[in-house]
TrEMBL record:
Belongs to the GMC oxidoreductase family. This is Uncharacterized protein. InterPro entries: FAD/NAD-bd_sf (IPR036188), GMC_OxRdtase (IPR012132). It comes from Araneus ventricosus (Orbweaver spider). GO terms for molecular function: flavin adenine dinucleotide binding; oxidoreductase activity.
Length: 84
């Protein structure tokens, strides 16, 4: 984990915000160039080790870890995941 104090003293040519699927790919592609420095930032704090145990995943609902995003209707899903 990179601390804020470390980041203050470094300069990056390509800061990338969001380590989701797109952000990770963008950061990876940019870092393939040796002359480029990349910083990939993700929201939130370090996840507790309990996140690695799938059986207790539901215990994190409605906590500060759960951002409570809802799905939106998608064509051809049969509404099986709407608002879940």
């Amino acid at each position: 984990m990179v601390t804020q104090n470390l980041i203050v003293h470094l300069v990056f040519s390509n800061p990338t915000v969001g380590a989701g699927s797109a952000g990770s790919v963008v950061a990876s592609r940019l870092s393939e160039e040796s002359c480029v420095s990349v910083l990939l930032l993700e929201a939130g704090h370090a996840a507790p080790l309990l996140n690695d145990v799938p059986a207790i995943g539901r215990s994190f609902l409605f906590t500060d870890i759960d951002w409570a995003y809802k799905t939106v209707p998608q064509k051809n899903t049969g509404e099986s995941l709407v608002n879940r």
